[in-house]
Amino acid sequence: MKNKTFGSTLIVAGTTIGGGMLAMPLTSAGIGFGFTMVLLVGLWLLLCFSALLFVELYQTVDSDAGIGTLAEKYYGTFGRVVSTAVLIIFLYAILSAYVSGGSSLLAAFLPTISDAETTTRIAGVLFTLLFGVFVIVGTTSVDAVNRLLFTSKILAFLLVLVLLLPKVSVENLLEMPIDNALLISASPIFFTAFGFHGSIPSLNKYLDGNVKALRISILVGTAIPLVAYILWQLATHGVLSQTEFLQILEKDPTLNGLAEAAAQITGSSIIGAVVRIFSALALITSFLGVALGLLEALDDLLKRVNIQANRATLGAMTFIPPMLFAFFYPQGFIAALGYAGQMFAFYAIVLPIAMVWKLRSQYPTLAYRVKGGKASLLTALVIGVFIVIVPFLIEQGLLPKVVG
C-alpha cells in the first residue's frame, strides 16, 4: 500500500502540475507577482479543502464508486445526472486544452508538413495516440509511466529554474497590477492549476478505499505543485516584465510563444529548449491523470445505463472529441482552460459541499471528518459560486478580460 500511496501522490502532483501551471505566466501578465502569490495560496487552500471532502464522502461507498454514484446516494437521479454532466464537460474541456497545448509544443519538434496548420493538426493526433494508450491500458500503466515522466519533469523544471532565476529582476517582481480586478478575472483559469479532483475516483479505487492513504496522497500531492508554482511564477515574472508579457500574447498566445520569449529575452537558446521540454512533460502528466478520470467517469455512466464497453471503446469516447477540438481550434488552450475552470468550480466546490452537508447529518460518527464545520463549508461555497459566475461578469463588462 505504501508503494501505491507514493504512486497516487505522484499522480496527484503530476496531474496538477500541467496545463494550468503553463498558462499562469500568460494569464497573470497584468496581475504582477505579489498578487499572483495571493491568488495561488488562496486557491490551494480552497481546493485542498474540497478534495478532502471527497475523502470524507468515500467512507460510505464502495471503493470503485464514481462521482455520479456518490451524488445519486444523496440527491437521487437528479444528482447523478447533474454531477455526471458537469464532470464530463469539465474533463472534456480541460483535456481539449491539454491536447491543444500538446499539439503546439510537439509541432515545434516536427518538420513542417505542407503548412504550419497541418503540422499542428498531425502533432495533435500523434500526441493523443502516443500517450492515450497508457490510459486505455489502465491505472497501473499510468502510474508506471507517470513516475518516469514526473521524475523527468522535476529535473527539467529544476534546470529551468537554474537557468532563469539568475536573470530575475526585482523590479519586475515589484510591478503592480495593470488592473486589480484582473485578480478576480484570472481566478477560473488559475483554479484549474490545482485541478486533479476528476482523478479522485480512480485513485480511491486504486488505493482500495484506504482513507488515510488517499488523504496523504492529496495533501502531499498538492503541496508539491504549490511550491513548484511559486518558483515558476518567481522565474517567469522575474525575467519577463508586464510589457514583454503583453507583447508575447499579441504575437503568439501559446506555450510555444512563451518558450520563444524566454529564449529571446534571456539570449539563450538552451532556455527555450528546456522550457519546451518541461512544458511538454507537464502537459503529458496532466493529460494522463485527466484522461484517466474521464475514462472512469464514462465507464461509470455507461454501467449505470447497463451498457458494457471495453477499454478500447472507452478510449475512443475519451480521446476523439478533444482531438477534434485541437484539430479545428489549435490555439484554443487558454479558452478551453477558462471554460474548464468554470465547470470545475461547480464540480470541485459546490458539489462536494452539497454532498457532505447531507453526509454529516446521516453519518454523524464517521472516523474521518474535514475540520472547519459548517462555517468553512459555507465560506468555500460562496467562493465557489462566485468563481462560477466570473466568466459571465466578464462577458457583461463588469470585470476586465484576462490578458491573453
Automatic annotation (TrEMBL):
Main location: membrane
A cellular-component GO term for this protein: plasma membrane
Keyword Membrane: yes
Record keywords, A-Z: Amino-acid transport, Cell inner membrane, Cell membrane, Membrane, Transmembrane, Transmembrane helix, Transport
Spans traversing the lipid bilayer: 39-58, 78-99, 119-138, 150-169, 181-201, 213-232, 277-298, 310-330, 336-357, 377-394
Gene3D superfamilies: Amino acid/polyamine transporter I
The keyword Coiled coil is assigned to this record: no
Compartments (UniProt record): Cell inner membrane
GO MF annotation: an example: aromatic amino acid transmembrane transporter activity
Membrane topology category: Multi-pass membrane protein
Family as reported in the entry's similarity comment: Belongs to the amino acid/polyamine transporter 2 family. Mtr/TnaB/TyrP permease subfamily.
Protein name: Aromatic amino acid permease
Native source species: Ursidibacter maritimus
Phylogenetic lineage: Bacteria, Pseudomonadati, Pseudomonadota, Gammaproteobacteria, Pasteurellales
